[in-house]
TrEMBL record:
Region of interest: Disordered: 328-357
Transmembrane stretches, start-end: 7-25, 45-65, 77-102, 122-147, 168-189, 209-231, 238-258, 288-315
Organism placement in taxonomy: Bacteria, Pseudomonadati, Pseudomonadota, Alphaproteobacteria, Hyphomicrobiales
Stated name of the protein: Membrane protein
UniProt feature, compositional bias: Basic and acidic residues: 346-357
Keywords: Membrane, Transmembrane, Transmembrane helix
Domain of life where this protein originates: Bacteria
Amino acid sequence: MKKISEILWPIIGLGAVIVSCYLLYGQLQTLSWVQLQAAFAAIPLHHFLLAAVSTLVAYAALAWYDRIALIHLGVRHISWLFVSLCSFTTYALSHNIGASVFSGALVRYRAYTSKGLSAAQVAVLVALCSFTFGLGTLLLGGFCLVYDPYLLARLDTLLPSLLTNPTTARIVGIAMLGFVGLYVLGSILHFKPLTIRSFKVEYPRPSIMLRQLVAAPMELLGAAGIIYFALPDSLNPGFIPVLAIFLASFSVALASHAPGGLGVFELVFLAAMQINAEDPSAAAQKAAVVAAVLIFRLFYLLLPFALAIVVVLLFERSRLAGALSSRKGSAEVPEPPLVAPGLEPSKIEHRLGKTPV
């Protein structure tokens, strides 16, 4: 069954990319390269800088995910620099390649076992980091839907009207916040551990839970801020709508198992921006949205991906060099002498009853 799922999910992800790109092409076929260049040129320099700062905030929060999990495990001897590099590499690779193809657990396992963690500890760390991300999505998504239940109506072209009406949206938002509240109570009141088959996850201490409630929204706010600062003022609906659209687009992209959410993220985001196709400036508006999404991909996905590959190569090179040097050192250890120090061969022979020649 496991082998089937390992084959099935990449196929589903590839299918999602093909279908999404086909639908996206239908929306963008009137878009010209000149319009896209103009959209990039219209973004002020300080907005690029703010988008870059948002990226740093997002990845700093992701590093905090790992740090929180290590504190939960009682591990404090690993430096912040090592944790930051490990977290950065993990998310940069898994965001681009797709968790179904290249799990972040592999990177974490290679890195943290070199610092003395067991496989079971790494498994708990990965689970807690994933849960922290989900907790942030539920918290911010629930807040957005309760604050403005009409936000879900932006997806009326992709979802049935039953799911996009304000009443349903508010109920969904309350349910999401309710789950977060239940988790908070579980941590404070020390509920029994959550057991899934042979895997057991204990509710963290309140201090860990509070850190999660800060780190998770911080990462998502930073990631959404990249697109927010890249959108032109004329199309920007405000930070909370952009945040809600980003959460929906990113969640669907992750669920699709498409590598990097390619096509899926763009399709959902563009649909939620509700650009009127009959508007004479529709093509220019689409170009501005596509430019903002491409900047998000550049800052949050592509540049970190390139840096992550360098980090992995340097790490594996250092591990290989260490292994070779230890092997060389063991090969150079002299064999123990056949004769004890301070005792001449003639004396040994004499003690054995032999007369030296």
